[in-house]
Request: fold
Amino acid sequence: MSNTYNLIVIGGGPGGYVAAIRAAQLGMKVACVEMRGALGGTCLNVGCIPSKALLTSSEKYSEALHGLANHGVKVGAVSLDLAAMMAHKDKVVKDNTDGIAYLFRKNKVDWLRGKGTITAPNQVTVDSGQGTLTYTTDRVLIATGSESMPLNGVTIDEKRILTSTGALTLPAVPKSMVVIGGGVIGLELGSVWQRLGTEVTVIEFLDRILPGIDGEVANQTQKILAKQGMKFKLASKVTAAKNEGASVTLSLEAATGGSPETLQAETVLVSIGRRPFTAGLGLENLGVKRDERQRIAVDHRFETNVKGIYAVGDVIAGAMLAHKAEEEGVVCVEMMAGQTGHINYNAIPGVVYTWPEVAFIGKTEEQLVSEGVKYKVGKFPFSANGRARAMSDTDGFVKLLADSTTDRILGAHIVGPDAGTMIGGLALAMEFNASCEDIYRTSHAHPTLNETIKEAALAADGRAVHI
Reply:
């Protein structure tokens, strides 16, 4: 293994490992520093992948309990084998992380195991726990991701009071769980345990769940989740949490202040957001600039104010999404190699993997109103779609927002079955500046869920057929 590289990437998550592989494909000699025992970062180890494994497994369990009879499938007594469910999740994680290690070997990317510190713009030290080695490099790319945001007055122990990491490894199904934070991670993991039998209450500081997404979609999502059994306390804040051994007692009050109240639960999940992980990188000594939220400041080439040091993903401004980090990592190293790069940040989709799923891209109605944009709305419910009826999955709708003058799609929002897959076609449409007319003049296979998108596009012009 060499001590000299063209590029050293610090962080083996989606932004880092994809950038490292692409840089190697472009002919660079590349190393990736990762301090976990496996590659893949938070996403593959304790985030996106294990949570989706548990979401899928818990969906199947819930369907066996409640949904199969509607399809004429009779089952006997349904029981849960949580250990087997967790084993499946762990195998999915291992298969994915082993796959990245294989890709590193295939593309001749060196994995430097340990904690990386930038000691100079062209120098990185790696502490493996058994010694420190120093490497020289033409460039450094920081892709260290993010970590769970702490909450004042609440001490995490990952047994009773959890972050998302602890919520993925509970040894038994708790009787009750309070989720602090009504964002994506809280609703997804709350859904897992609610399906498995836990009484879940979500406490959100704002007066709505899913901050930042279209308000109508968020409202509909809350109604659906409430129908499934999830409880909500909005416009509320947690001021303290006392671990009493067999349970946790929370102190909370209205977000605007008021009389305090208490709430008990067997477990508590703290999910109020994430913050950039930049501790111990040596940024202060190098004078690397960060903003008020401690995100690393970069230019259009993802280079910091210190020449030769770059950053992508959760450590810089923008949505904390794995696929956003991947796009930035690829564009960053391609520009290092003299190529041009482009990311359309308005055409990066987001997905909430509850059931039904929630997917969105582009502008919300609230954003268009605040920007003074004249727009039109096309909506179509899944209850009027033949395929959704056949699946017994009729909750939700598709909502398209288009420019009133040009008909160009400005935003798309879906709450419904397989919304995360369906949003892909709309991302492509927006990347090519498609109009609603472009969509409804494109033939959509019948019977499919995608027909709801065509009908929503027709509805934007006041000519929906099937409603």
Observations:
- Residues 82-107 form the longest helix (26 residues).
- The CA atoms of residues 382 and 394 lie 5 Å apart.
